[in-house]
Specification:
The chain is built from five helices and seven strands. The chain has 199 residues and is α/β, with parallel strands linked by helices. The chain has a single domain, classed as Maf protein, CATH 3.90.950.10. The longest helix is centred in the first third of the chain and has 16 residues, at 45-60. Mg(2+) binds at residue 68.
C-alpha cells in the first residue's frame, strides 16, 4: 500500500518510514508528487494534522498520513505548540531548527519550571472525504536542558532532556529515540489502527 506523507520534512519521513515498515507500506513525501504545503490555520495538533492529511489525499488521490507535532512548554501555557516550526520567527530569527533552539533557550533564561511535553498527532485518511480518520497521539514528558546536547535527531531534540535517562533525544541512537519518542508512540498506535481498520 502506498501512503502519501503530508510533509516535506526529511526527518519525519525517515522516522515514520522506519516505524511503519512492519506494515509494508510505501511512504512517499508529498513534495515528490508535486504537492505543496497545506494551510495550517488551527490551534490544535489534531485539526492541523487532519487538514494536512485531507489536503494531501485530495491532491494525490492516495491515502494520506499527516503528522502535526510540537513542543508544549509548561511555563509558557503550552506554547509554542502548533507553532513549533516557526517559533524562532516570533523573536526576529529566521525559521530553522537551530534558531528555534536558540530562541527557546533565550526565553527560558531564569525560568525555574522547565517541564515540557513533545506531542505527535498522526492522522490517516483513505480519501479527502474520509468520515472516519484514524487518529493516534503520542506524548513524551521531559525538561528543557540549559544548553543543546547531542548530534542526532532534529527540531528540539538537542534540548528535550529525558530525566529518567539523563540524556536528550539528540544524544540517543536512532533506534532508542524511535522506541521512546512521541512520534514512536503515535506510530505504534497508528500501525495498530491501520492493521485493524484498513488491512
Amino acid at each position: 500500500m502506498q501512503l502519501v506523507l503530508a510533509s516535506n520534512n526529511r526527518g519525519k519521513l525517515a522516522e515514520l518510514q522506519q516505524m511503519l515498515a512492519p506494515l509494508g507500506v510505501q511512504l512517499i513525501a508529498q513534495g515528490e508528487l508535486g504537492v505543496g504545503e497545506a494551510p495550517e490555520p488551527f490551534h490544535t495538533f489534531v485539526e492541523n494534522a487532519l487538514s494536512k492529511a485531507r489536503f494531501a489525499a485530495a491532491h494525490t488521490g492516495l491515502p494520506a498520513l499527516a503528522d502535526d507535532a510540537g513542543l508544549c512548554v509548561q511555563a509558557f501555557g503550552g506554547q509554542p505548540g502548533v507553532q513549533t516550526a516557526h517559533y524562532a520567527t516570533r523573536f526576529g530569527y529566521p525559521q530553522g531548527d537551530a534558531h528555534n533552539v536558540r530562541a527557546l533557550l533565550e526565553q527560558m533564561q531564569g525560568v525555574q519550571d522547565r517541564r515540557a511535553t513533545m506531542v505527535s498527532t498522526l492522522v490517516a485518511v483513505r480519501s479527502p472525504e474520509d468520515p472516519e480518520p484514524l487518529i493516534a497521539v503520542g506524548r513524551v514528558h521531559g525538561e528543557i536542558a540549559p544548553a543543546p546536547r547531542g548530534e542526532g535527531g532534529f527540531g528540539f531534540d538537542p534540548v528535550l532532556l529525558l530525566p529518567e535517562l539523563g540524556r536528550t533525544f539528540a544524544e540517543l541512537p536512532a533506534h532508542e529515540k524511535n522506541a521512546l519518542s512521541h512520534r514512536g508512540r503515535a506510530a505504534r498506535q497508528m500501525e495498530a489502527l491501520i492493521r485493524e481498520h484498513w488491512l
